[in-house]
Design brief:
Elements: H1 2-9, H2 14-27, H3 34-41, H4 45-57, E1 61-66, E2 76-80, E3 86-92, E4 96-103, E5 108-115, H5 122-138, E6 145-152, E7 156-157, E8 162-163, H6 177-185, E9 189-193, H7 194-205, E10 213-218, E11 222-228, E12 231-233, H8 263-267, H9 269-281, H10 287-293, H11 300-308, H12 312-336, E13 340-344, H13 346-351, H14 353-366, E14 376-379, H15 386-402, H16 404-407, H17 415-420
Parallel strand pairs: 3-6, 6-9, 10-13, 13-14
Antiparallel strand pairs: 1-2, 3-4, 4-5, 7-8, 10-11, 11-12
Length: 421
């Protein structure tokens, strides 16, 4: 107990700093034997041996298999005890709830999905989400929850975990999302914009690159997540990347946020539905009109898929959306100079190359040639688990890169310990 108390209240000491580094090196697989740790840390063999013993006593590390010999006696590997806890993810979308349970490595163990309109408000939405989480946890074993990540489709003050004037989330402004989950589960909780979580997913895929990357999501709304040298950029108030409410020249359509001429109002999924319905009402024909007149629900996904099938109306709407989005991204390319742009969301996933080709063309037309010299513009992986993986990546960063010194001595994190520190 003395050891734990010393570590908890002396988190800036050389002892704790070296212990944290050793645990993280093993956790990330960057050094998995004692000799490798000596080389990676430049600490003496005796110090490394002592820190490894401490980490084992505290339950973070254990001996693994013998490594492949490179001459002489084969060293025994070390492994991070990832089975000691789980992470929980809850990705709230405009029209769905997606929840998951992951190992401490970030691998999704179980997940569930449900159609849901987030405009039904925070009380009903969070009650439903927590019931879905409880069902998953019931089948995921008895490992304690080490952290929870919540994604919402709107701006978030990351420091407080509260949504800030989210246009498509009536009743959510300033709502204490984090406190609801912490009270229910006792684990630390972090809340972020959903598109930031998708940027985290892309970072995990490019872990060795430290990318400058833009993730652009075009679904019911439009937003981007920004990675600068592998670090997420949220801005001072969590509003970075909210390009959906950037003003479009000569546009006067009223947006859901109350302003006129927003990008989302002319290029977002709900704008495509509005324009498609208006065209069908005045006599447009073709595959999309036949589906809608036959009783199919008009959704962004239906419009996008109809465009990929060659429907004239849907293709026109999707290409117009892509051109507007491409113009907005071109401005970001000039300012941010990313190496990669990943385009995802229901429209991009459904329309495929039809959508991406127009975005590429517009960016290359309008952005500075130097900024586009080596720029890659690609589609995201169309997988319902992508936001869950991003949630897990965000929580792992907060646990092991940001707050680890504050709970190291306790053996595992808790909401009470982190909020009182």
């Amino acid at each position: 107990m003395a050891r734990q108390s010393t570590l908890r209240f002396g988190a800036q000491t050389d002892e704790v700093t070296s212990l944290l580094r050793i645990v993280n090196l093993v956790r990330l697989g960057e050094a998995t034997t004692r000799p490798e740790l000596v080389r990676a840390t430049s600490l003496g063999r005796g110090v490394v041996a002592q820190r490894v013993d401490q980490a084992m006593e505290m339950g973070y590390l254990e001996d693994g298999e013998f490594a492949h010999p490179t001459g002489g006696r084969a060293p025994r590997t070390l492994r991070f005890r990832a089975e000691r806890g789980v992470l929980v993810e809850c990705a709230l979308g405009a029209m769905h709830i997606n929840v998951g349970v992951s190992a401490l490595t970030g691998d999704v163990i179980a997940h569930a999905h449900r159609e849901w309109d987030i405009a039904r408000g925070p009380a009903a939405t969070l009650e439903t989400a927590m019931a879905m989480v409880d069902d998953l946890l019931a089948g995921a074993g008895r490992a304690p929850i080490w952290g929870m990540g919540i994604g919402v489709p709107g701006p978030v003050n990351f420091a407080t975990g509260r949504p800030v004037a989210p246009p498509i989330m009536p009743g959510w402004n300033g709502f204490e999302i984090r406190r609801r989950f912490e009270q229910q589960y006792g684990a630390p909780v972090w809340v972020d914009n959903d598109v930031n979580l998708l940027a985290f997913t892309e970072r995990a895929r490019r872990r060795d690159e430290n990318p400058d990357l833009i993730y652009c999501k075009v679904g019911s709304g439009i937003g981007v997540g920004l990675l600068s040298q592998g670090r997420i950029h949220r801005g001072a108030q969590g509003a970075a990347g909210d390009i959906g409410h950037e003003r479009v020249r000569d546009a006067d359509v009223v947006c859901r946020c109350g302003k006129a001429g927003c990008l989302e109002a002319v290029a977002g999924g709900w704008a495509l539905i509005r324009d498609a319905q208006q065209a069908i009402d005045v006599g447009a024909d073709g595959y999309l009109a036949e589906r809608v007149n036959g009783g199919s629900l008009l959704t962004p996904e239906l419009v996008a898929m109809a465009a990929q099938d060659g429907d004239t109306l849907a293709t026109s709407l999707v290409r117009t959306s892509a051109q507007y989005v491409g113009e907005a991204l071109a401005s970001l390319v000039n300012m941010f100079n990313p190496g990669v742009i990943v385009v995802g969301g229901a429209i991009a996933a459904g329309a495929g190359e039809v959508y991406l080709a127009d975005i590429r063309q517009r960016i290359y037309e309008l952005a500075h040639p130097l900024a586009t010299l080596d720029l890659k513009i690609v589609r995201s992986v169309d997988d319902v688990r992508e936001p869950l993986r991003g949630c897990a990546e965000m929580v792992r960063e907060q646990l092991f890169d940001v707050t680890f010194p504050r709970w190291l001595g306790d053996g595992q994190p808790s909401a009470a310990a982190l909020r009182s520190a």
